[in-house]
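User: Structure please.
Assistant: Input sequence and predicted structure:
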Amino acid sequence: QVQLVESGGGLVQPGGSLTLACVASGFAFSSSGMSWYRQAPGKERELVAVINTFGHSTYYADSVKGRFTISRDNAKNTMYLQMNSLKSEDTAVYYCSGGNGWGQGTQVTVSS
């Protein structure tokens, strides 16, 4: 069965950085496009970034463009989200998605 496990969330000050990881199993990771989503309290889940199978093509929401970088390591069945210049509005639960499945989410809190 599809399993996606996120890690790397935490509390960080505005302007700081975090790197999230998503380890996948149960499906053909290297043949699957992968995505990061986030959901802030009281808001709908929103798409943050997408990466194609070999990492040659990416998409970013306007709100994170230039600050976040999505990447993947197909040898490790792992996707990453490097988040720089974090803002308070980036506070949310971050989810990875792929293989028709979802991870359990990891909390990112940006606060001084």
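DSSP finds no helices and eleven strands in the chain.
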